[in-house]
Amino acid sequence: MEETLAPPPVKYIVEEDGQRTGVVIEWEDYQTLQATFLTASSPDPDLLVGVSEPELQVLAEGILSSRHQERLNELLQRNREGGLSSGEEHEMDLLLERVDLMNTLKARATYTLQWLRETKE
C-alpha cells in the first residue's frame, strides 16, 4: 500500500487586503516535503541530489581520517595475531562499518558526477 503524506499545518502570510502572499510551515514539515520532492524528482535513488559538483568531488575523493585509519590498522594487525578483546573487536567492527559507508558514499558521489557530466552533453 502506497503511503500518502498528510498536508502539514499551514500558516499564511496575508496582506491587509486579504491576499495570501506567502506560506509558513514547520521546519520539520519543510524537510519532509523537500526530501519527498527530491526523491520523486530524481531519476535514480542512488544519485546525490542537491549536492554541488565541488562537494561531490570532495566526497568522491574522501578517505577515512588518519586517526581512524591508524587505529583500524592497529586493530587489524592485532586481530591477525589473535589478541583482541571483545571491546576491541566491537571497535574494529565499527571502524570497518565506517569504511563501508565511506566507500558507498564515494561510489554514489562518483556515480552522480558521471550522471551530471552525461546529462550536460
Task: Give a written overview of the molecule.
It contains 4 helices and 2 strands; from the N terminus they run E-E-H-H-H-H. It has a two-stranded antiparallel sheet. It has 2 domains: 1-41, no CATH class; 45-120. The protein starts with 10 loop residues before the first strand and ends with a helix. It is mainly alpha-helical. A hairpin with a 5-residue loop joins strand 1 (11-14) and strand 2 (20-24).
- Radius of gyration of CA atoms, rounded to a whole number: 23 Å
* Main sheet properties: 2 strands, antiparallel
Report how far the terminal alpha carbons are from each other: 39 Å
Shape: elongated
Tell me, rounded to a whole number, the average pLDDT: 82
Integer tally of domains: 2
Q: List segments where confidence is low: pLDDT < 50 over at least 5 consecutive residues.
A: none
Q: Estimate the helix proportion, in percent.
A: 55-70%
Approximate strand percentage: 5-15%
Structural category is: mainly alpha
Major sheet: arrangement of strands: 1-2
What order do the helices and strands follow?
Answer: EEHHHH
Multimeric status of the protein: single chain
Number of helices: 4
The total count of strands amounts to 2
